[in-house]
Amino acid sequence: MMLFFGLLTALSFGIADFLGGLVGRKMSPLTLTLYSQSIGSVVIGVSAVFFGGTPDIFDLAWGAAAGAMLGSGFILYYRALSNGRMGVVAAVTGVWTAIIPFVIGYWLGERPSTMAILGIMLVVVAIALVSSGEKSPDESVLKNSEKKIKSVSFYALQRGFLAYDRSIVQATGAGLWFGLFFVFLGQAQSSSPLWPAAAATVASALTVAVLIPVLKPNLFFDRSNLPIVMVVGLFQTLGTLTFVIAANLGMLSVAGVAGALSPIPTAILAFLILKERATWVQIIGVAAALTGIVMMQS
Fold first, then answer.
1. Domain ranges within the chain, ordered by starting residue
2. Could you tell me which of 32, 11, 12 has the C-alpha nearest to residue 21?
């Protein structure tokens, strides 16, 4: 059951990333994060009040710490996307997100089987393969002329075609924060996962809100996109909730890697819905991920 909820975490965040990518073409990614996390905070907060029982202060603290990491990770991730190539940034972030929970879980005394460790290693490689195979349909436009680069939309820039070395540093930082999000959230051992998930979602929204005056994104967007923003927030919150359950049922080192598989469902949805052509690298990555998942059950 642990692996099931870990994979459900990846599926939830993967769907949220896919939908966020669609609506992100029409609004600032930071604005999307602020509103989606705020919507999620209301839903999970109300659920915790009515169904979560009595909150534990330590679980709330771990959840809040995890949320601060998540909000900080979102900010660094989007900054990295604005400075570098999307595929490279996504690959670097995804790999670090998977590695951190495994390393810390192992350091805390967890000892997965040899077969499970090999599966985890294969999954980490799979995340890099699937992410690094991503391309943007706008890339050819940016290659035409330098003038067109200057007039390209914010979306195209945030997807990342003006590569700077700092994007790798930012992507690494984002991966570290996302990895610590899983680690901190995994320390909450409440009988009800609702309170740690609520604390994490609220803290994430507050972390982004505090930095809005500094980063100054455009907070306005077309109200027709509100339903998608709401769905993004619900799936992000569901991913947070299911990871608390996964971490309570088994080893952090395995649950964290399973939760970091979110690029896989995002890529599959792009293949199925947007009819994007999968590269051989991505196909190999998906196959490697499925194989690694089976091995992780050992």
1. 2-296
2. 32
